Amino acid sequence: MLKGKHVLITGASLGLGRAIAETFLREGADVLLCSRTADTLEQTARELSASTGKKQRVYWKTCDVADAAQVADLTAHAFHVFGTLDVLVNNAGVYGPKGPSEEVDWDEWRQALEINLYGVVLPCRAVIPHFKQAGRGKIINLSGGGATAPLPFLSAYAAAKAAVVRLTETLAEELRPHHIDINAVAPGALNTRLLDEILQAGPERVGADFYARALKQNESGGVSPSIGANLCAYLASPAADGITGKLISAPWDPWPTLAEHRDELATSDIYTLRRIVPGDRGQKWGNPA
Predict the structure, then answer these.
(1) Which end of the chain has fewer CB atoms surrounding its CB within 10 Å, N or C?
(2) Annotated catalytic, 157?
């Protein structure tokens, strides 16, 4: 499905990022992995390279995706090792500070926004000129539950993830004439280091309801990262050409058959963020006279 494709994946050393890399390699792609943690990143890259029997190329480079200069170096490295680039997967993200918005450390709040939002904008800005020149390209942004519902006591994460979805929708319109597809993926409730952070924080900092859901998720095993990784591979493939500007849920949406509804998706607000007005809920009191 992805044979011969060259892919840059951020936040790729652990969890979902690693699962995405494994899936892309299995589908025939070459990958460049990035993360802020050098030791873990190198270990992951070497393990993935060994698992492919060196049939696909696996490169790695440390990068803080919230730093414009480092992102520029990362992108330059991608073109140095690959010669071209076909797919960008923006997976790097953090929960950030946990607690009431007016009490959490401001520097931590700002840093979470920089990683979760700037860490998507900057790589997009870096690759888009190359994709435009090529007349094609795929960008996949990882979103989450914070984008579609309030997430009390995790306000930086929620605000950034909602912004990522609207950014995705906006860039899709800008890039549509250039045949560049960009979508957001909600991978589901994963049992990764982010869940560990919630459990360690406790109900006092993240709220009793969210903590209880985290406990239940931890016990059930959560959603398999492979589901989100498979969706990312689908969106990166030619099978999904023309599907753009959407927020797609890996565990809940019928994404394997989305290509059958390509024309409907292109002309509707399905799988997008929109304001709900009274009429949408059968109420007449908000309708104009």
Answers:
(1) C
(2) yes
